[in-house]
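Most newcomers find our protein records easier to grasp once they have seen one. Each record describes a single protein and holds just a pair of labelled lines. A learned vocabulary of local backbone shapes supplies the integers on the structure line. Nothing more is needed to start thinking about how sequence determines fold. The record below serves as our worked example for the rest of this section.
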Amino acid sequence: MRLVKQIKLYFQEGNSDKVYEIDLCESGDGYIVNFRYGRRGASLKEGTKTIFPVALPEAEKVFAALEQEKRKKGYTAAGEAPLVISAIPRTTSSGNDKRRKAILKILKVAAAGEELETWRLSRVIWRAGDLKLKEAIPSIHKLTDTSDPFTLYSIVWAIGRCGSAADVPLLKSLQAKPALPQHIKQLIIEVLLKHAEGQEKEQLLNQILGGLPLPIQKKCSGEKLQTTEQTIARIFV
């Protein structure tokens, strides 16, 4: 396995001192994206975003999406100025209300089939998820008939942030979309694991488990449902 690209990101705030490392590696005829995370100086936990090797362009998208996700949370590379999140002025309650109303209005306009003149749809949906606007979910449901990967990723991410078990059928329909990028498929799995309940969650775990390498299947055999879920979640974190 040959290392193609690597980035090490760090997060420091209060007593928190964390590291997140991302590797893009050549593996056989394809490429994989692995990650490690934990406290700086401690033994790091490992995981992968690509259970099976994918083409280089797809692996680069997965790598970039993961890096962007961590940077949004305040992680920076060595030598970069850290984001001083605490220095950002707090928005007043009335300011928050105006922002929420504006986002909901924009999403309703988009859901009605009108083209947005100023805002990129994927960014509006992402912001709805960021603010945990549960009221935005009905409009977001009407925006899934798209092939734009950025919009689809934002839809799934927003549902993960402010959706519920009621969104599981929609997630499964998105999962069935043809030519869906691998990083979106894996995000859907994460969100399904979060929202699915009871027998539906058990069936989902068994389905995911059946597609994993045999050593992992053997490790999970005989485990309790919660333990199996934790094992699978560590792979897709």
Q: What stands out?
A: Confidence is low (pLDDT under 50) at residues 83-92. The domain at 2-87 is CATH 2.20.140.10 (q64v53_bacfr protein fold).
